């Protein structure tokens, strides 16, 4: 089995019951719902559809709700595409007033902040504009290269700091929907500082939403504040689309590696995203460069890799997931174990280090690591060392099972532990043999503490033979 998790964006190309089932069987661990598109009703119905199918397959599948956040998008007149040529002058307004207005950016702050000479990038940089004149009613810009501007395409302003709110009204509407549905992760686009995460958490708390927060790093400001965002968020996403526009493209691979390593050191799951198998929107096979990109993310040690348009609107959603799963599995197997410089400062850290040492010594062949955990923290601590065997995390909390769907190599396993005092894991081992997960004679590593409910009390590791 593959150990790297796959996040798949659900959309019109993949939202049928049959396709969802095939995607799960091909290797999807988490479904992403992109709230920039679709109505509340559409998302609500598909969330429940995924849960029903996952239950039928006896699979734990995570649900990630991706909020739009303070993203800047333009609008075109009559929602039509506009072809532009090098040197052409474009007049862009905050709202359509004149019949001659073709493009608007409905954010007055943009017009209050831009200055002559600023760069305006559209659709991940596919169209570049240079500002020639600007006031609060419009700005005039010159097209740098030929291109096409589509309705609702994203706008980036590299080096321009616009004080947009961290959440928009539509985000709050989507959070209301999340409050009445089982959502495991909430992602905030274009978060910039820890205050943005605090604001989201406050809104979630008001609605009683118990979900992990994913901070999407996709701006220069977020990159500058990466350490504080890693500290306060639960999961980090390397959102390379907008990030690759905001920073020099030649830096992106190095930034990705740095971010993944920092997340592992902080024991925070990390998702690598954007254009990983982009050509598979139209093609049944990935390009060699795309296969190498996915492989390198796995070799870097990412917890998860993500598909966006490939599964939401592409022609080959199931093939895209299958290709990603094959690439991930092979590169997990050949990857050298990368050592993290972690100074053990508690018993749990010492146990985690012992687990890795036992695996590296290859004293005996280990089928998987069995971890008894209340919060999932110990399982994630072992996960960040990127072992080459699965981690089965036994917990009483179904919510923890679902939250672990994003963590490398970890599979949650719900089991009732009556009194919280740890006893020998024979009962769990018997259950695993009965279910076919374990065969008599196979060896596993068992990690536990004396009291199941005491977070941070993990202090024992042993090899058990079934």
UniProtKB/TrEMBL annotation:
Residues 2-321 form the Pyruvate kinase barrel domain. It comes from the Bacteria. Pathway: Carbohydrate degradation; glycolysis; pyruvate from D-glyceraldehyde 3-phosphate: step 5/5. It catalyses: pyruvate + ATP = phosphoenolpyruvate + ADP + H(+). Residues 364-463 form the Pyruvate kinase C-terminal domain. It is an enzyme of class 2 (transferase). The keyword Metal-binding applies. Transmembrane segments: none annotated. Its EC number is 2.7.1.40. Keywords: ATP-binding, Glycolysis, Kinase, Magnesium, Metal-binding, Nucleotide-binding, Pyruvate, Transferase. GO terms for molecular function: ATP binding; kinase activity; magnesium ion binding; potassium ion binding; pyruvate kinase activity. InterPro entries: Pyr_Knase, Pyrv/PenolPyrv_kinase-like_dom, Pyrv_kinase-like_dom_sf, Pyrv_Knase-like_insert_dom_sf, Pyrv_Knase_brl, Pyrv_Knase_C, Pyrv_Knase_C_sf, Pyrv_Knase_insert_dom_sf. Pfam families: PK, PK_C. SUPFAM superfamilies: Phosphoenolpyruvate/pyruvate domain, PK beta-barrel domain-like, PK C-terminal domain-like. The keyword Membrane does not apply. Belongs to the pyruvate kinase family. PANTHER family: PYRUVATE KINASE. This is Pyruvate kinase. It comes from Candidatus Collierbacteria bacterium RIFOXYD1_FULL_40_9.
